[in-house]
Amino acid sequence: MTAEPLTAPAHDLLSDYDSVLRRAYEHAVEYLRQQYAEDRLPVGPVGTDAQLRALLGGRLAAGGTPARDVVDELVRATAPGLVRSGRGRYFGYVTGGTLPAAMAADWLTSTWDQNTIVHDGSPATAVTEEVCEAWLVDLLGLDEHTSVAFTPSTTYAELLALTVARHSLLARHGWDVTARGLSGAPEINILINESVHPAVTRSLQVLGLSGQITALPSDDSGRMDVADVRAAVAARPGVPVLLCGHIGEINTGGVDRLRPLCDQIHAAGGWVHLDAAFGLWAAASPRLRAGLLDGVELADSIATDTHKWLNTPYDCGVAFIRDPDAHRQAFPLEASYLQLNPDERHPSALNIDISRRSRVFPLWAALRQLGRQGVADLVENTCARSRQLAEAMASEPGVTVLNQVHLNQVLLRFEHPGGDHDAHTERVAKRFQQDGSGWAATTSWKGTVALRFSMANWTTTADDIAETVRSLRSCHRQLRAGDPAAP
Ligand SMILES: *Cc1c(COP(=O)(O)O)cnc(C)c1O
């Protein structure tokens, strides 16, 4: 059978959508039931790529398939390879869960299928972007004039922010990079924290700036030394400076010393960009903001996302640009077919992409569901769970917590009497993953292998951490005792 032709009567069309969406809803609720109610279901994938290829692949058939069957097939075929990353004991990468209101809003976003190109493409999207911009700037305590763009991810937010930084810095030195390109442009003294996420270096590469980067050393928490920055600026007087630091180093959760760094760079007429993929949300907690994020409002640009710590579904990133004029100047938008009333918000005049998903609806829903206090509580709770894990594991013989737990990242090192601690840590990680009660992956921090935990899920409880500790201890003890068998 093939899909109904587009000329189908309205009632047939409606019943097609009704039937397929109800089917999708049933599958979704069953997935969530398993995720949250079936405690022994492994968190990691249960099948192999070969199984997935057999189920998903083969030649694309000449004929179509009824929509409802497609949905059933998709669910069956992906099952062996889905990672239950919404579960409270999934600690891999930095991956949040999804708040119910945000998930529902995401479904509606697909239903509405708005084109976010300019105001008239979707007034609802344009105004929701305006509202989310104001809410976020207020919630995070940024400069009130800050201009915001919504992107697919933190990486795209870095690219967008650094495009603005490049334009603005070179314009101050008499060069319009948007009109003239980079050939013959003044050099930029780009100083980056050596531990900064590759999202930053990749964006600089894309912008043709990788040859101008100097990496500055970072300490055990991943923070630059203010004196190093001062010396690197002084070494090249008169050269435009771009400093890239971070809030929430990917391994340790460490935060650069924002106020002195911003003061320093601004005194030299430079631009400070911060990668804050997850860490920026700590600004919603008055305690963390005062202790770690003092001066965040001084940064010229910040890249973050909502799909990690704020618990919206993938994907949504956010770029904050403190100077709204600089933001607009970097993305001149003229096209014969675009009507750009200057009193309205035109999303593609603030972005690299033109057409895109209205990803602000799930964000709006998440912020509404949580409220200001809810965001602060989410951040505080996940930080408390991180401390719980670190404290419980620190009392286990042969386990070292490698980082000071500033935020929501914990690095565990497992030691073996034989002395090969890296290999032992890798084995503990494998066994922990196979045990299925939780999921985390190893990293290399300053040359040392560690098991890295990232707490970003709104559903993670103290019991989840207790269960994780039980499993980790058992994996570590069995492997130390030389038992190669299953956990
Ligand atoms: C995840 C992450 C990024 C990249 O974010 P995406 O949304 O995956 O592009 C950058 N920096 C840090 C610290 C991260 O945790």
UniProtKB/TrEMBL annotation:
Keywords: Aminotransferase, Decarboxylase, Lyase, Pyridoxal phosphate, Transferase
Family: Belongs to the group II decarboxylase family.
GO MF, one annotated term: transaminase activity
Cofactors, names only: pyridoxal 5'-phosphate
Presence of the UniProt keyword Membrane in the record: no
Source species of the chain: Catenulispora pinistramenti
Lineage, top ranks: Bacteria, Bacillati, Actinomycetota, Actinomycetes, Catenulisporales
Coiled coil: none
Keyword Membrane carried by entry: no
Protein known as: Aspartate aminotransferase family protein
Pfam families the UniProt entry points to: Pyridoxal_deC (PF00282)
